[in-house]
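Task: complex structure prediction.
Instruction: return structure tokens for all chains below.
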Amino acid sequence: MARSPLQTKLCDMFDIQYPIILAGMGGISGPISGPELVAAVSNAGGLGVLGCVFMAPQEMDEMIRKTKSLTDMPFGVDTVLPAEVPEKGTTAEFKADLSSLGQEQDELVKRLVVELGVDKSEPADSVKEATAGHSMSEQADDKAWSADLFNQQIEVILEHRVPVYAAGLGDPGPWVDKLHQHGTKVISVVGHVRAARKVAQAGVDLIVAQGHEAGGHNSRIATMPLIPQVVDAVSPTPVVAAGGIGDGRGLVAALALGAVGVWCGTIFITTKESLFEHYLKQNIFRGTEDDTVVTKVYSGKRMRVMKNALVDAWEKSGVPTLPMPLQSISILPIMDGAFRNERADIIPTPAGQILGMIKEPKTAKQVIEDMVDGAEKVLAELSTSKAA
Amino acid sequence: MTGKIKTRVTEILGVEHPIVMGTMGYQSFAEFVAAAANAGIFTCLASVPFRTTKELKEEIRKTKSLTDKPFGLNINLFPMLSPLDPVEYTDAAIEEGVPVIETSGRSPEHLVERIKSANVRLMHKCIGVRHAVTAERLGADLVEVVGYEAAGHPGRNPVGSFVLFPLVADAVKIPVIAGGGIGDARGIVAALALGAEGVCIGSVFMATQECPVHQNIKQRLIEARETDTTLTFHSKGDPMRALRNALTEHIEEMEQNGASMEDILEIIGGGKGKHAAEIGEADWTIMSIGQVVAQIHDVPTVKELVDRLMNEVTVIRERLNSTIG
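Output:
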């Protein structure tokens, strides 16, 4: 029976209709790829991935149950496994470290809290409701940043027999066997060839090669050279392309480069189902591909976000950033005030350069349908009208 | 499906394949340009090395004696880079019947009328949507856009090719030639899928027999990894992508110590850097190369490379067209 070129090995691997994966997006303030978005993507024929970055095990459990109630289709769960964090440690414990390791940064933060005007005023009502009176710092205090947490998160994934686990950052090697034993496939997101080889050797099922165009944590290597280089380096392990994919053209281009599908963040972050703050979505609709910057200010690792007042001010100061997780802990006083006041010019808007193509909110289903329709059109053009 | 791809780019440039070999300032001389033209692709002679229009005209005639296929002339508009006024290079090209002028570095506004009234085609090379739109408005026949990962100067806050190519294709009606990150046939098909009607390939052609650089340099390209390029020369306000080596590290140090642009230029283009390039001292030669460098595995002739690329393009198009039984 005939198959469309869009039905790739990826579709067979995860039992999905289209080779489109939702990036598992989330952060210290909660998931962006939440249950509704994940279910919408999976129901539309792609693979939704829950963003459980730094999420406590109980919350993860709730999110997974909620997602299962909204879709019968396969979906995945994403966490991060950065190598730098120690065995144990909560925010409160790291804050103590800051006083010795981060004096220069601490002074800058105190100055910026005043300069950026986040030292005063009452929170907006919407914010009061969402955070039930706790500041970001208070919420963050018992968040753990440790290998201990990551182990607990994996246990939740194993318990629920989630079909796919994605390591958005770091090396899932040590957990691959256990995950495989429980019937879970493993995805690893990387940014250069050496990292790809490492995780391929550790036995992951799929590698997402994410190029410089991508929003969030960032590689120096652009997608166009990265994909074929990773494909060649890890063959026969399949590779999915990420970074700069905005529509059907990007999907076909990824397949031409040898990828079996795409992993997309920015085009889904602005959908109606995403848990991204609406006032940050506005930043994306209004912005262009020139409006992003790669900075270590938010997490201590290079991350692409839209240019804003905090990044400008920190970069101008010349003060170096701290490593993960100290950097994000050190800026909590600024972020507290920023969230209280819905400061779209301080809260990070992680977005890829593809934001230049995104002008309006769509449903996840529309994004997928438009991408598939566009891809089929491009495939038809490539095979006929350009041929002599 | 035959191998040939016809697009507005092949029609306007009068070339067999939709490939433009990126102009290399100190390598795109007659023999290299003729080899490219004879292999069925398009490229431009560089004008930067020529101190008089007489010398330039001689080089154009020499190229014509080596190929009867069309080729263009690149006129680099970065201030201070060329010994002559761009107008003089333009007039020389027109007088010698060169059919295409490629401008780069700055707006070609002051040259447009001259070029158009001589019925010469204008191809403008730039690094962003806004510049492409301006080039179209000024009357360019073709626009070449080059992404963050390319060799040369990608701009201060460069956009990666995966995003740049479709955004430019959407923004202009004239045909787009896309460059940056294309290391083999997969990249060619990807660029066409993203909306380009031609591709600009530079780095990979540096590792060809006919490219007039020392064998040691070509060997260094074969050995390099994708992470071995760096954006250097920040103090010029217009960083350049080059292979990381002792020279780029030295430049970084000089910049940190507040060295002047003249001092740095002296090291690269004059004195030590120039001598190093001549004797194949790869550690001290500035090698402007893109992130595709990791895809360079050998040193074929230009024709072998072009044939290899286009045959592989056909295979990929067939793969994308296939219905799996």
